[in-house]
Design brief:
Layout lengths: L1 H7 L5 H16 L5 H29 L12 H4 L4 H26 L1 H16 L13 H8 L2 H12 L4 H5 L2 H17 L1 H7 L4 H5 L1 H17 L2 H7 L12 H13 L6 H24 L1
Length: 289
Amino acid sequence: MKNWLLAIRPKTLFATVAPVMIGTAMAMGNGSFHLYSFLAALMGGVMIQIGTNLANDYYDFKKGADDEQRLGPTRVTQAGLIKPEKIKSAFILSFAIAILIGIYLVTRGGWPIVIIGLSSILFGILYTGGPYPLGYHGLGDVFVLMFFGPVAVGGTYYVQALSINIEVLIYGLPPGLLSVAILAVNNLRDVNSDREAGKRTLAVRFGIKFTQLEYMFCLLLAAIFPLRSYFIYGTHPYTVLTLLILPFSFTLYKKVKTFPASSELNSVLAKTGQLLFLYALLFSAGWLI
């Protein structure tokens, strides 16, 4: 069980839970909350992310990106804790469960849900698998921004309200940005081993300084983003509660700046995930007050 928890990486699941919370809060705000759709979106999203995490573990091992010099948390395939065939079967099973859950959402939301679900699974595999893995060519940040941001928030809102509007998609950007910040820490920590393995993340392409600034930019923009609603429309003033993440953001940035390419960033990665969850709580509460 301990080895499987290592493989699943539960600390990263905030990246799925947070946008589902935000999309649900926005649906509740206009009286469109639907309990079963919320639960299905949450469970389906979590299963897709678990499948993606397991697929990354498997394909990074196959491509030689993980070795004994890895600074991050243990990858079970590389460490020999679980056989590659079992990890492969597990990520296929995770995606299959997500599809089964998605059948209910399709009966409610129709073909848009088919497109969202299948594309999420496809890109979850293509992130490190396939002939042109996104994470190996500096495209991982775009994938994370979109699928853990507007796609997740918009999809969650849609299956409950059965409609969508541009504001929902726009407010999907902050959780997407915070998920990109998580990825930036991961890439910064692994920049040296990724370079040796031929994994051309943005940290490898543009360097440590760029990645540190990318991290801070994502945190700052996410924190101040809700100000637009108040200043442009004069609505939802309490969403500015998200500014409360700023002191924590600066503390984490200091560590990112002090310990690049270091195992010290493992705790920063975990705390950035917690910060994302805190952001979702603050935004959701502010939206509903």
